[in-house]
Amino acid sequence: MPLIVTQAPLVPKPGLVVRSTSRVKPGAYVLASTGTTPALTVRGDGITVDFSGATLRGTPATILPDGRKGLGVLVEGRNVTIKGLKAHGYKIGLLARNVKGLKLIDCDLSYNWKQHLLSTLDKEDLSDWMSFHHNEKGEWLGYGVGAYLDHCENFEVKGLKVTGGQSGLFLDRSNKGLVWNSDLSFNSALGIGMYRASDNRIMHNRVDYDVRGFSYGVYNRGQDSAGILIFEQCNRNLFAYNSVTHGGDGFFLWAGQDTMDTGEGGCNDNLLYANDFSHAPTNGIEATFSRNAFVGNRVHGSFHGVWGGYSYDSPFLANDFRDNQRGIAIEHGQANTFGFNRFWGEDVAIALWSNPTQDPNWGYAKKRDTKSRDAKILGNLFVGTPLALDIRGTTNTLLEGNEFRGVGHAVRIPAGQEVFVPLPMENRVAGTLTGLPGKVLTVPAANVPAPAPWNPMNPAAGLPAGAKEAVSKYRVAPLKGGMMPFIPKGTPQGWSTILVDDWGPYDFRRPLLWPEKTVEGGAPLPGGTSAGSGQRQGGTIKETGRYQILGPKGRWRLVSSEGVKMGATSGTVPGVVSIEVPPGRVGTTSVTMEYVGAATTDIRLRSNYREVAAFANSTIHLTPVYDLDVGGRYSHNKQDARVGFILDAITDIHKELGKHSSSLLVLHDKPENAWREVLDKYDVKEVYTNHD
To answer: Where are the domains positioned within the chain?
Structure first.
């Protein structure tokens, strides 16, 4: 009989180097790391390391996100497969260097390092701005990320999850890879960042709510956060069937410093096909100083649908724009084609212009022709826009086969500017229109059915004749087994669902008390009455005295309050409660509320911990305080007198701590064990009065 030898499961230890195919023993392991010294290294050729069931932690769960440090796993070699890795509490979860044939399969690198933000609900702090413009010396390593691929070739990233960190996945000089079926959402800077990375396919990913620098109705800055960012000579990449919504920018492309200095190169020949880039506080798509294709994408409810400064030779085809302030805005663009797009409710649908002066420090402007010229605007539908086309400082523009329905002005063109319309009847105009300052031909309203809704599987559906042929040359087939990551119809979307606190975007996985605000005296911008941006021009931000109670389904009750009038003392989650501060109130105001319900996860990756939402002083600035879940949902010895005491005394403990404006002592353990430790160290009186 043959002798069968099975390898014993590997037990991780600090500094361990894995050199052969291995299976890691399931369990939780604390493997500390400092700097770039890895807690664990995988090095070899043609090996697979299966971490399924094992979790590595670099720092305890009691540590706040900006205290996480070190490198979890370093990968080196060729044809290395990492499966099922969970690494939390590090500055960088996984770093792969110079690996050809790397595979990351079903890994979870969530809850690693992120910055403590200083912007508040009322005011932006400029120190929160990111800057990804330089990475020649590995500067991005200092920003923290779930997975960092450095000089990797022919890689595959499938089923990667990164949430609750600063960024999800960085591709640095990593080429010919595939990233798919991954979830890189609710991070405070980037979902995916690429630097000098080319010939990659980014498909079927969920990259939503990667955002900072936003307070609904107050400011929408984004601070260079984005769902997907590609900087500096990233070429021939494909982005298809991704949900990239509610990011600072949805998609952020910049040619790079080399191009700005020399006028050569750029991030060119990338294809964005059938993605959803909606609800960005700044730009759904930003792509500058480069040549790319944008086909069949959805961009709703953003400040700009596309900001494409200095783009050239770029087709924008069969995209669906709705409720943006400006659908497409391009300064100094050249030979771009805008065909078969739909514009609904934009303030301005397409804006093309040139500036009288340009930055004298740009080598780009000195070494290239940067005139705004040669735009083709063909077969587009404009519905309900005050101004469809704003064309200034731009020469040789062609308008053909467009349809204007219910717009205020079809075209604004300064006197003396040339705009070519081959045959007057080829541009159908529904209603009576005037040009600014010239005349626009008017014809009776056309009986044209409303176009079909956006369909990522068939972007040309419901569009005019010619759209199918124009789109077909760019068509990308979905991958077999690729998920459709788009947010389901009926799910709340739009700027009002972007809640950014001092740790980044709120992910709806923990209880949260959040103030509702209104804007008085301002005029709504596009999207203000729909699922779009909800931005308003001018006006004054006013507190309503109403607070959203957010989180997983459950119930809340009032534990204590001081100096406020509560509209209710209990209710359901999600829900709303009014909290009024009497006029002229001076001194401390506070509210402590308790949540019981479905499983929760807080910013420290602690499951089933209660979160007590509190605010102090008459400014009503929210300060979250984290409390143990002592609801007794864990199994324990019911006869244990100490546990019984804990469960009976919880309400009193909350009240007493609230009187002293105290935070709660937090111990990382199951509730019954943590409280036993407290009771073993203190008598009952000390438990009530201890403020640490």
So the answer is: 224-476+494-500, 501-689
Query: Number of C-alpha atoms within 13 angstroms, CB side, residue 26?
Result: 3
Give Cβ neighbours of residue 228 (< 8 Å, ≥ 6 apart): 190, 191, 192, 193, 194, 202, 207, 239, 242, 244, 247, 250, 251, 252
Q: Write the CA distances from 103 to 179, 201, 240, 400, 494, integer angstroms.
A: 10, 14, 20, 49, 35
pLDDT at 667: 46
Instruction: Give per-residue pLDDT as tens, 586-642.
Output: 888 889 999 998 889 989 888 765 443 333 333 333 333 333 333 333 333 333 444
The per-residue pLDDT for range 662-687, each reduced to its tens digit, is 544 444 444 545 545 544 544 433 33
CB 39 within 8 A of CB 24: no
The tally of CA atoms less than 13 A away on the side-chain side of residue 294 is 33
Q: Which tokens hold the place of 459?
A: 């972007």
Residue 489, classified by CB atoms within 10 Å of its CB into exposed (0-12), middle (13-18) or buried (19+), is: exposed
* Half-sphere exposure (Cβ direction) of 226: Cα atoms closer than 13 Å: 25
Query: Residue 645, SS3?
Result: helix
* Orientation angle between helical segments 641-659 and 671-681, nearest 10 degrees: 80
Q: How would you classify the pairing of strands 387-391 and 403-405?
A: unpaired
**Among candidates 132, 154, 241, 196, which has minimal Cα distance to 478?**
241
Is omega for the bond preceding 574 within 30 degrees of 0, making it cis? yes
Asked whether the beta carbons of 178 and 155 are under 8 A apart, the reply is: yes
pLDDT score of 448 more than 90: no
**Selection from 640, 649, 639 nearest residue 673 by Cα:** 640
652-659 mean pLDDT: 55
Residue 260 has pLDDT above 50, yes or no: yes
Q: Rounded to the nearest 5 degrees, what angle is found at the Cα of 226, between the Cα atoms of 222 and 227?
A: 140
CA-derived radius of gyration, the chain: 28
Read out DSSP for 232-301? SS--S-EEES-B--SSSEEEEEE--HHHHHHS---S-S-EEES-B----SSEEEEEESS--EEES-EEES
E strand intervals along 19-155? 22-23, 27-30, 38-45, 48-50, 54-57, 71-78, 81-83, 86-88, 92-100, 103-105, 145-150
Q: In Å, how far are 88, 95, 289, 472, 603 from 59, measured between CA atoms?
A: 8, 18, 42, 51, 14
DSSP letter at 639 equals T
3-state percent helix, strand, coil for the chain, nearest multiple of 5: 10, 40, 50
Residue whose entry in the numeric block shows the structure tokens 């199918």: 468
Taking CB atoms within 8 Å and a gap of at least 24, the contacts of 635-642 are 636/670, 636/672, 640/672, 642/675, 642/676, 642/679
Strands 293-295 and 381-383 come out as: unpaired
Distance from chain centroid for Cα 494: 12
> CA distances (Å), 543 to each of 515, 520, 551, 592, 645, in order?
8, 10, 22, 20, 41
DSSP 456: T
**b/e 63-92 (16+ beta carbons within 10 angstroms → b):** eebeebbbbbbbbbbeebbbbbbbbbbbbb
Compute the distance between CA of residue 47 and CA of residue 482 in angstroms, rounded to an integer: 26
Residue 421 has pLDDT above 80, yes or no: no
Q: How far apart are CA 525 and CA 537, in angstroms?
A: 6
Question: 517 forms bridges with which residues in the sheet?
Answer: 543
